[in-house]
Design brief:
The chain is of the alpha+beta class. It is built from 7 helices and 6 strands. The protein is elongated and about 75 Å long.
Length: 233
Amino acid sequence: DIATSSFYPPHHITMGEGGAVYTNQPLLNQLVRSFRDWGRDCWCEPGHDGTCNHRYDGQYGELPMGYDHKYVYSHFGFNLKATDMQAAIGCAQLEKLETFVKLRKEHWNYLRQELADTEEYLLLPESEPNAEPSWFGFLISVKEDAGFTRDEMAGYLEQHNIQTRNLFAGNIIKHPCFDELRENGTGYRVVGELANTDFVMNQTFWIGVYPLMNQAKMDYMVKIMKEFIAQKK
């Protein structure tokens, strides 16, 4: 019913920040637009007023009768409207999307092929049968018996000007934002031991498959990773 995209700079296409929500359900569309626009009950398009023809004759919550519907809030929402400049950048990026996806796939396939002989130490990504991913990045997990840690390997890459990223939060409930909730034992629940989440938190990181990387940069990434592993054997 709902799909999403993020337009953060390293993603497949960018508008500098922000994202998009897609739906073919009219009710969900109305809800999403409300959350985007402060939680307003009004569904007028920007620059238009009075679409419902009942702007001043409705009763909402405990507001006075006839309160301006344009400023009635039926949800706790956010200010998430994109600017015209962002939209223009997004439209230009869409024209390049097919090429971006092609290059991301090529870069991912090259790294997967060239790093195949490191699988004694690393867990490398695989696509599901009948799937054709447009890869966000190249995800690497250091095996627990590899003889070195994720942080050691990622640190070595960073020292050689190869940027890395953890797989976002890892186990989010380990973060400081949960300190008070953990102490009080309220506000969230956990199902199971979260073993895979903890594994990702401790062992996993990304390297890039950015479309503008050239062959020399790809070769350098492979060289440095294999160089690190060779030093640890």
